Predict the structure of Arginine--tRNA ligase.
Amino acid sequence: MKQRVSALLREKFGREVVLEKPRDRSFGHFATPIAFSMAKELRESPMKIAEELAASFDASDIFSNVASIKGYLNFHLSENFLNEYASWALENPSEFAKQDKKEKILLEFVSANPTGPLHIGHARGAVYGDTLYRLAKHLGYDITAEYYVNDAGNQIDLLGLSIQLYGRENILKESVEYPESYYRGDYLAPLARDAMKVFGNEIFHDESRQKELALWAKDGVMELIKNDLADANIFFDTFVYESTLYDDWDRVMAKMGEGIYKKDDKVFIASSQKDDDADRVVVREDGRPTYLAGDIVYHNQKFERGYDHYINIWGADHHGYIARVKAAVEFLGYDSSKLEVQLSQMVSLLKDGEPYKMSKRAGNVILMSDIVEEIGADALRFIFASKRSDTALEFDLSEFKKQDSSNPIFYIQYAHARIKTIISKSNFSEDEIMSASLKDLDEAADILMFDALLLPEIIDDAFSSRQVQKLPEYLKALAASLHKFYYDCRIIGTENEAKLLKLLMLVGLSLRTGLSLMGIKAKDYMTKEED
């Protein structure tokens, strides 16, 4: 709706027009402050300009009324337009709210080290990234979801050591002295058992083979990570392994030109020239590349693949890392404005009002798989998408296990199931319902129809602003409107039964589509503890 109105006004006025939704629906479906922006150039009052603009609209299939209210130009959409749009949406459910965006985007997210299972911090970035991905696909973007596997560096060496220590203590029953830094958790058990089958007992004692053991084990850890993601309905198009990139190191460093230099047997990137706080080491004295070195080669590879835009979702602790990566992109000869970094804050968990206790089997973190097992993937996805990713999130698991209206995901699912139940009680066939007109609705029904038809602009706004929480907020509000309408309005057995059922079908379509874009399947049947 908004796109259609915007296009018409853009053509009429020859400029972009800002559209707003009046808080008082009696003022219309949309309003624009265009008269205020024209007042200075025309040297007229906004009220006079708005009155003249309103009078310039002829009879239209889209608008039933265009009025000037306190300098704003207000538009009432026509019944014909709303009826035709609603009917089209119901007849073409797979096309509802879709667009045909042309931009080609590479979206990188999660990218957790392949040294252990995902924890809830990873889960938040995973849900945020996958929801962005789904929104973009629905809008027609050519988008690729990519996972960057950091399978080089000290963290991989530590994986080999951790498996050796676990095997010696738990399989060989030896006394082991643990260093300050090592990985722990039950996930090491199958890795150690399989390592013994593949390499023999000696693999647990030979320090020279730690790297070999780690590189073998990280594939098993990656399978664990992929399974955790799949359990939350999250999948990737491509995986890029850091270990495969260093063959291109010399070429990429040469491409950096004067962006790198050597000092004190170290190689630095001159990132301070590009708004970073200081120059950064990319190669240590002993010749080992730093974490940043891998990212430089990786981002060069990204840009050489020729996308229009690049989005990285990183943990909030990577905030200071943005400037140095953008500096590298500039030194490589690319436009760093094409690289966008979104940050994902950590999560605090409660259970019945008390801090959630970490699982002994998980080591020192709360595992994503534990939370999925406790409240389900739908609730986890909804929670992590329901607040801006760059703000702290605290929630109580017990609230999302309740089967009543206090649980927002249950509340939305129940709205969809309620619609299905009401329709099943009708004697009208689906064809009879679909052929009904949505004209001459009362005010409450008209508002509900308009709200259901707002989904396309919600999707567009949620993606373009990168604020995916706008989608669950919309779904909660639409579910609340549906439940209120159900209590206030008798449907079955009335003379308007068919058209009201069609209205409910439209609401159901918006709920179902919105949930799908959150990676959640709408439910047709549910039980409820209280109404």
About this structure: The two ends are 34 Å apart (CA to CA). The first helix runs from residue 2 to 13. The chain has 19 helices and 14 strands.
